[in-house]
Specification:
By secondary structure, the chain is an alpha+beta fold. The chain folds into 2 domains: 19-116, 2-Layer Sandwich (Alpha-Beta Plaits), CATH 3.30.70.1890; 124-207, Alpha-Beta Plaits. It has helices spanning 5-13, 37-47, 136-149, 183-192; strands at 20-28, 31-33, 58-59, 65-66, 72-74, 80-86, 100-101, 108-116, 124-129, 155-166, 169-179, 206-207.
Length: 217
């Protein structure tokens, strides 16, 4: 496993030592529930129990195409299972290779893995951010407060409200885009995440793919 040269150069130019990285696993199977955050986390921590003790460790949402028949997503061979993990835990993530999990729509087999560095972008996106309040105005106020505690400034664009079901309750949250963010702050935010329930895929930020990668002077 290795980072691409361009990713190393981006980080080196900021004189930054990363503490987390993304680990991408091939997965094979048919479908996964659209609302899979909790079930997927529980399946993964059966094999990586130490994740429960790492608040920065998270599992990215798995993307797929709505099946049209039920509330599942159809996955194909290009879909990846992605974990954001502390760098010192990379070797232990190997324990997932070859395992079978079932987040609720049939078995998925976990295949080979590779590392993908967290890289600095001025525009970031999270599929689902959850805080203690799901009213949109108060949600944005809380997000700004959380960002201020780590001295991060950015423009905020919330997306649609959505729910995630976990035992005994429902989590509410929004997708969220951050723009015009300082590159060092971008790395810090991707490492720390934002809000609650990182393990369920909440508050994990990735570069927004429609924005051109930042060029360094």
């Amino acid at each position: 496993m290795r980072m691409y040269n361009a990713e190393w150069e981006a980080i080196k130019r900021l004189n930054y030592t990363p503490t987390v990285t993304d680990i991408q696993f091939d997965i094979s199977g048919m479908e996964i529930p659209a609302d899979h955050g909790y079930a997927l986390y529980e399946e993964i921590v059966r094999h990586l129990p130490w994740m429960r003790d790492h608040p920065t460790a998270g599992i990215h949402p798995v993307h797929g195409v709505p099946s049209g028949r039920n509330e599942n997503l159809v996955i194909n061979r290009r879909v990846k299972l992605v974990l954001r993990l502390p760098i010192e835990r990379i070797s232990e993530a190997q324990a997932l290779v070859g395992k079978e999990i079932d987040p609720g729509a049939g078995k998925l087999r976990i295949g080979d893995l590779k590392e993908k560095a967290v890289t600095p972008y001025a525009t970031l996106y999270s599929h689902f951010v959850a805080v203690d309040n799901d009213d949109e105005t108060q949600f944005l106020e809380e997000v700004r407060r959380l960002m201020q505690t780590v001295e991060i400034q950015a423009g905020l664009i919330p997306g649609k409200f959505q729910n995630m079901h976990i035992p005994k309750r429902v989590i509410g949250g929004y997708s969220l885009m951050l723009h015009d963010i300082d590159l060092m702050q971008s790395l810090i935010l991707q490492e720390r995440g934002l809000g609650l329930h990182r393990g369920y895929g909440c508050g994990i930020f990735i570069p927004h793919k429609s924005i051109k990668e930042v060029a360094f002077d």
